[in-house]
Amino acid sequence: MSIAHDFEEHRRMLEGLAYRMTGELAEAQDIVQETWLRWHRAESDTIREPRSWLTAVCTRLAIDRSKSARVRRETYVGEWLPEPLVEEPGPDDRLQIEDSVSIALMLALEKLSPAERAAFILHETFGYRMDEVAAILDKSEEACRKLASRARTALRVEKPRFHARPEEHRRLLAGFLAAARSGAVEALEALLAESVELHSDGGGRVTTAPGILKGPAEVAAFLAGVWARARAEGLEFEVEERWFNGGPGAVVFAGGQPVAALRLEVEPGAIHRIYALRNPDKLVSFHRD
């Protein structure tokens, strides 16, 4: 087989790995492209395990890039949220995908060191044995076990406590959008958990909520106010359901252009996290053809 065929066979896995390591689509694509260039220059016919070789190169590049990404996060205006990963998995893959790319988990991964993040992702998401993780990271197996253990401990509180069925998720999403658009504050509050939080990312490009909003009253009042101001200004919004980061979400369009992407995290019967992406640079994946 050609070196291009061997690489393409593993491209999707590499893109998924790089995205989970960085939370940025363009950065992930750059990492995969650099991995390809190194593969192209290597004597690939002497490489016995292409998948392991490619994974090692991709992971090490991602670790290096994640260090510079941390510096960029420090100067980011407002709250940073990961770029949306727009892909709808098959029914058998949904639970695994939701667990590994939910926005809540992606934010939690940001708190880990690059090595902890890599060890966790390789072992927990991609199923590499710990001796394989050690070879990829060029560390001892014992060191990698400690990295993965620290990561699991740190992430335990961020793991979803409840996996909503897609139908339940969509029901809450539809009710949430209907209440927000109509300005029905009480109906909106009734859908929100007592622990609800609203996280917004405008990147300094557009107006968003002033920090993280907490509690049903504060969150409902803010969201209803947004729709009310839009109506007063004569703005017309279209809302489409789109699947991203492991679950159903909604994309709001104005004048045919995406202006917000909303992703809800739910617990039994209520919404406990709302992630609102408003930065135009992070809405590119939702542009209509």
Automatic annotation (TrEMBL):
All copies of domain RNA polymerase sigma factor 70 region 4 type, residue ranges: 104-155
Name of the featured protein: RNA polymerase sigma-70 factor, ECF subfamily
GO biological process: DNA-templated transcription initiation
Membrane-spanning ranges: none
High-level lineage: Bacteria, Pseudomonadati, Verrucomicrobiota, Terrimicrobiia, Terrimicrobiales
Domain of life: Bacteria
NCBIfam families (alphabetical): PRK09636.1 (NF007214), sigma70-ECF (TIGR02937)
UniProt subunit comment: Interacts transiently with the RNA polymerase catalytic core formed by RpoA, RpoB, RpoC and RpoZ (2 alpha, 1 beta, 1 beta' and 1 omega subunit) to form the RNA polymerase holoenzyme that can initiate transcription.
